[in-house]
Amino acid sequence: AINAFIFDLDGVLTDTAEYHYLAWSALANELAVPFDRDDNEQLKGVDRMGSLDYILKKGNVNLTEQQKLTLADKKNLHYQQLINDMSPKDLFEGVTELFAQLKQQNINIGLASASKNAQMVLERLGIADQFDYVADAAKVAQGKPHPEIFLTVAEAFFLPADQCVGIEDSIAGLQSIVSAKMHSVGIGQPEVLYQADVVYADIKSFNLQQVLALA
Ligand code: BG6
Ligand code: MG
């Protein structure tokens, strides 16, 4: 049986994936590095410095660690401006109902987010108290696609991986779930998220019975 649902945040519960994209493309533009939505698919789920390294590599730009930290801070400030006005109305449609169904069935709700801004976004959305356990960038050594972040949540619940479902909008995040040997749900396009056991366009299309039948 499935006893835990472990959600990614950005792009799964709210549209912050778009804000990360806007902030990275502004930075890439300043560096004169070409950056499009296909590049962005590679970056979804990837931590801040890993994302910056991808852009610098693409543009053959060589910088010192100090210069990299300055650029990462700059992107983050831009991102934080973009999320500043977020409120509970920015929660994707269907999340409240899905969480209520999970709670009713005594299924644990976890968060596995690579973002150092995760706690702030959860608070803006008004859902910080909905999670039985939250793992964010501060809790893990290895980012997605490494399985550590999803396994950290499963361990907090004392559950084996095959009793957990991970829900992700990113290629790197799905790889993390698959490596953790958990069941997986993709949120987005099936062509991009082909690794997932099942893919829905968005959370409001979630079919709980279908997902519970995975185990
Ligand atoms: C992930 C996003 O959730 O968090 C990435 O999918 C982002 O796009 C990463 O780069 C790190 O976020 P932050 O807020 O720590 O820069
Ligand atoms: Mg995501």
UniProtKB/TrEMBL annotation:
Transmembrane segments: none annotated. Its EC number is 5.4.2.6. Keywords: Carbohydrate metabolism, Isomerase, Magnesium, Metal-binding, Phosphoprotein. Binds 2 magnesium ions per subunit. Substrate binds at residues 8-10, 24, 43-48, 51, 75, 113-117, 144. It is an enzyme of class 5 (isomerase). This is Beta-phosphoglucomutase. The record marks 113, 144 as: Important for catalytic activity and assists the phosphoryl transfer reaction to Asp8 by balancing charge and orienting the reacting groups. The active site is at 8 (nucleophile), 10 (proton donor/acceptor). Coiled coil: none annotated. PANTHER family: 6-PHOSPHOGLUCONATE PHOSPHATASE, HEXITOL PHOSPHATASE B. It holds the Pfam family Hydrolase. The gene is pgmB. It comes from Neptunicella marina. One of its GO terms (biological process) is carbohydrate metabolic process. It catalyses: beta-D-glucose 1-phosphate = beta-D-glucose 6-phosphate. InterPro entries: B-phosphoglucomutase_hydrolase, Beta-PGM, Beta-PGM-like, HAD-like_sf, HAD-SF_hydro_IA, HAD_sf, PGP-like_dom2. Its cofactor is Mg(2+). GO terms for molecular function: beta-phosphoglucomutase activity; magnesium ion binding. Belongs to the HAD-like hydrolase superfamily. CbbY/CbbZ/Gph/YieH family. Mg(2+) binds at residues 8, 10, 168-169.
